[in-house]
């Protein structure tokens, strides 16, 4: 891989390979010294134009565990607030000797522009661009599913036959888009559930089925149910009557939780709006993988940084 911009670029073999390397990286967390010398001498720049907790922190930890030099850039308090362009910001940071740039940006396509413009000579990792994609989130979600399914025998496995239901604000969700394409590549089937106002206008090319009724989707007995955050910061209109009505129709409340199989995975990419898209009991139940997703994010991001900067041979 030269860049990681979209899960559409990943075939099954490549995706499974990334997950397998992440298994090796996960082992590092259990060592007394949680570090590898793999990226010593490499420089990773975190270029975040949007607020982030989980993604930014896990990329920082991933780079440090691989012994890379790390620069974390936040648009707040920088020359961006003075009107500096993405091109000038990227080139300024690249002049410092960046080997990889991890970018999160509010504009869809920003990562692709950075990677393909010729402005910098560094690997580009898309950490979320507008409502387009968030490939490492989808990879950590798939990694979490695979570990729940196969445990210590996960290496080399895909997700053939797994039935995944993704619920909520599909329209604004880069997580949903990345998951749809990655899960399809790994052999899973995807069902999208949302109010009609929170679905993209055209999903005809998406490898997923579309529905509007969460109760019907639960009756279909999914193996995984992934709840999405309502992204009110991206909404400039009323997409549903009110929060109470949304929770009643499309929230994973305690009654719906009780109807799921004991081994059904309950996922959420975070941050969660408890009581809106997911109840506290659902978020904290034994079915929930929320904290596993956070921990697995470090392993996935270690794997991606390693593969982009060191090649395809396992450490």
TrEMBL record:
**Recorded catalytic activity of this chain's protein:** carbamoyl phosphate + L-aspartate = N-carbamoyl-L-aspartate + phosphate + H(+)
According to its UniProt entry, the protein's GO biological process terms are: 'de novo' pyrimidine nucleobase biosynthetic process; 'de novo' UMP biosynthetic process; amino acid metabolic process
Q: Which UniProt keywords apply?
A: Pyrimidine biosynthesis, Transferase
- Which ranges carry the Aspartate/ornithine carbamoyltransferase Asp/Orn-binding domain? 160-308
Q: In which pathway does it act?
A: Pyrimidine metabolism; UMP biosynthesis via de novo pathway; (S)-dihydroorotate from bicarbonate: step 2/3
- A Pfam family name for this chain? OTCace
Q: Name one GO molecular function term.
A: aspartate carbamoyltransferase activity
Group of enzyme by EC: transferase
Q: Does the keyword Transcription apply?
A: no
Name the InterPro entries for this protein: Asp/Orn_carbamoyltranf_P-bd (IPR006132), Asp/Orn_carbamoylTrfase (IPR006130), Asp/Orn_carbamoylTrfase_sf (IPR036901), Asp_carbamoyltransf (IPR002082), Asp_carbamoyltransf_Asp/Orn-bd (IPR006131)
Question: Which positions are annotated as binding L-aspartate?
Answer: 82, 174, 229
- PANTHER family hit by this protein: ASPARTATE CARBAMOYLTRANSFERASE, ORNITHINE CARBAMOYLTRANSFERASE, MITOCHONDRIAL
Role description: Catalyzes the condensation of carbamoyl phosphate and aspartate to form carbamoyl aspartate and inorganic phosphate, the committed step in the de novo pyrimidine nucleotide biosynthesis pathway.
Listed name of the protein: Aspartate carbamoyltransferase
Name of the gene: pyrB
